[in-house]
Design brief:
It is a single chain. This protein is an alpha/beta fold. It has one domain: Rossmann fold. It is built from five helices and eight strands. Helix 2 packs across helix 3. The longest helix is centred in the first third of the chain and has 19 residues.
Amino acid sequence: MFRSVVVCLALLSFASAACAEPVPAARILVLARHGHYEADPAADPKLGPGLSALGIAQAQLLGARLAGLPDRFDAILASPLTRAQETARVIADDLPGVPMSTIADLAECTPPTRRPQAVAGVPAEAQKACADQLDRLFAEHFKPATGAPRRELLVCHGNVIRYLTTKAIGVDSGAWLDLSVGHTSLTTIRIEADGSMRLVGSGDIGHIPANLQTGALGDPERKLAVPAR
């Protein structure tokens, strides 16, 4: 009798421990590139310039689109650079109640590419440091959620988004330069509970009218200004 009671208690203890373990769930990451910006010699050399008038308009259009989605975001994670911070704040105004935080590893950098002539001005050690940064970011954030499905918005940069996309679909990360994403474009990656990943959409700019699109291959440089005579 005593032995049966001990066995039952042991089984109950095992079942409780098993139930207490976190259950993996799907995680959806929406990577948004910042809006248009212009060079500013007075800007902080580390944080860079802020958004142009056009970039603010693009961010407002993006915020309106995200606000219209049926599913709520659980968090907004932003690069520390000024143009990403400002884009995230404009978006957050349309997503009330969604917490926003800054992730240092989302900062723009230039990783190695299979087209080294295109990044010849970037020292090899800086490229390696960038790859280490983005690999660390990938390991930390590109994994299943725990307990319940989770949706996160990452507001960052073109190089960052393109490199992370190659990692997510399992191709040579040196191919990141062969992708093109415009300002305030959306790239959506779904991470299943088993850790497998799916690219749902890449460089989506459906919320930006054709005459306000910038930043992607072939886009002209534009400004929100009255054209000269």
